[in-house]
Design brief:
182 residues; alpha/beta; seven-stranded parallel β-sheet; 18% strand; binds adenosine monophosphate
């Protein structure tokens, strides 16, 4: 399994998100899966990647040249690909992974998440998507999607493939159950 995780380049106010990011990196490594991510060493991204490396995991990062200064980490990862544009970064992460997780994050995290969702909506892939927030962070997003669905602009079928989870382990179980080998 190669799981791409989208999460904040910031740490957020509450330390519990940093701990969740570390738990995610560790859990992916412990399952023997590969972590694919944006290649940064900052915020939740950095906490997650460092924890995965410390647990003996395989970590593949993809970072645009223009963000190296701002986001790159001081710790080694298994493989870091440097690309020219943000669009290339997303494309490479999407191609590499066979499943996706979003943890709390900001606009970049949402952009990446919605790219995966919209590509699946138009049938360009069928890879599973899970969100982990311990019951809090993504709930406004969930309500927004329910409201959009009620208004008829979003199909139930297109939001129903998002798995909403309190724990990382539950999210990884969903991905394992839904993934097709590639
Ligand atoms: P954020 O959730 O805003 O903290 O950002 C999380 C990650 O998403 C960071 O590594 C950002 O560089 C990245 N990001 C932001 N916008 C984009 C984009 N348009 N395409 C690809 N990655 C992005």
């Amino acid at each position: 399994m190669r799981v791409c995780v989208f999460c904040g380049a910031k740490s957020g106010r509450d330390e519990r998100w940093g701990l969740m990011a570390e738990a995610t990196g560790r859990a992916i490594a412990e399952r023997g899966w590969t972590l694919v991510y944006g290649g940064g060493g900052v915020g939740l991204m950095g906490r997650m990647a460092q924890a995965a490396m410390a647990a003996g995991g395989t970590v593949q990062g993809v970072i645009p040249r223009s963000l190296i200064r701002q986001e790159a980490g001081a710790f080694p990862i298994t493989q870091l690909d440097i690309v020219d544009t943000m669009a290339e970064r997303k494309t490479l992460m999407l191609e590499r992974a066979n499943a996706f997780i979003a943890l709390p994050g900001g606009l970049g995290t949402l952009d990446e998440l919605f790219e995966v969702l919209t590509l699946r909506q138009i049938g360009l892939h069928s890879k599973p998507v899970a969100l982990v927030d311990d019951g809090a962070y993504f709930q406004p997003l969930r309500r927004m999607l329910e409201a959009f669905t009620a208004e008829g602009f979003v199909l139930d079928a297109h939001v129903s493939y998002i798995g909403w989870h309190d724990t990382v382990e539950a999210a990884l179980d969903q991905l394992a159950a839904e993934s097709k080998p590639s």
